């Protein structure tokens, strides 16, 4: 007969991963790391945390095997421990949205009530065909380091905070399909609003780079051409 104490210990080991995911800030750090490797100071800045708090959260994630590190001189770089961690993050969010009533109003409060709804967004499987046909251009509005770590082939890189000044770099005769980190990333929504207000044809990809990677669609890496 199986040992009850051993079974309890096994399920407590499973629960440790759940406990590591029980902080919204740790989930946000995983979301950032799904875009590519980062240092603790870069993660702290992007997540709005001080270095001490960010380091503590990252240590929790590392102790449960969700993130890994490499040392470059005195700097420590963090990354997701595997693609299965990105899959877990994606599944957790989709399950929460489907079964937890609080998610929908929180999403609307964050992304804005005027955000395009899902039927107005471009599905990822249609985007490459639109680009190949010359009907659309993909616009990546994430920070440049995230674009360099991996982006949709052929996508232009203009961080959202630079978009107003660089709008002239976008072709005027093509629809602009905007994407950012994932389905819950506000950068694409902000960019679509800005472009539409300036009279451009703009629409959002219905999710983002996280889901694109998980779907095993083609990804290019490297900085944007000068």
TrEMBL record:
It holds the Pfam family Rhodanese. Residues 6-100 form the HTH arsR-type domain. Residues 132-221 form the Rhodanese domain. InterPro entries: ArsR-like_HTH (IPR011991), HTH_ArsR_DNA-bd_dom (IPR001845), Metal_resp_trans_reg (IPR051011), Rhodanese-like_dom (IPR001763), Rhodanese-like_dom_sf (IPR036873), Thiosulphate_STrfase_CS (IPR001307), WH-like_DNA-bd_sf (IPR036388), WH_DNA-bd_sf (IPR036390). This is ArsR family transcriptional regulator. One of its GO terms (molecular function) is thiosulfate-cyanide sulfurtransferase activity. SUPFAM superfamilies: Rhodanese/Cell cycle control phosphatase, Winged helix' DNA-binding domain. Keywords: DNA-binding, Transcription, Transcription regulation. NCBIfam families: HTH_metalloreg.
């Amino acid at each position: 007969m199986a040992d009850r104490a051993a079974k309890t210990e096994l399920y407590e080991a499973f629960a440790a991963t759940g406990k590591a995911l029980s902080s919204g800030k740790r989930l946000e750090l995983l979301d950032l790391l799904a875009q590519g490797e980062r240092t603790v100071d870069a993660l702290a800045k992007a997540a709005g945390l001080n270095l001490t708090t960010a380091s503590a959260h990252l240590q929790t994630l590392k102790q449960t095997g969700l993130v890994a590190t490499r040392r470059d001189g005195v700097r420590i770089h963090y990354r997701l421990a595997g693609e299965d961690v990105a899959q877990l993050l994606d599944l957790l969010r989709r399950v929460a949205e489907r079964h937890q009533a609080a998610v929908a109003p929180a999403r609307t409060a964050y992304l804005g009530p005027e955000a395009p709804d899902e039927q107005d967004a471009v599905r990822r499987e249609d985007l490459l065909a639109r680009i190949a046909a010359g009907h659309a251009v993909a616009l990546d509005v994430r920070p440049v380091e995230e674009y360099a770590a991996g982006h949709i082939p052929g996508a232009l890189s203009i961080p959202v905070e630079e978009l107003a000044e660089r709008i002239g770099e976008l072709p005027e005769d093509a629809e602009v399909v905007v994407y950012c980190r994932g389905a819950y990333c506000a950068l694409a929504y902000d960019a679509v609003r800005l472009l539409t207000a300036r009279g451009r044809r703009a629409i959002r990809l219905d999710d983002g780079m996280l889901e694109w990677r998980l779907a095993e669609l083609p990804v290019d890496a490297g900085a944007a051409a000068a």
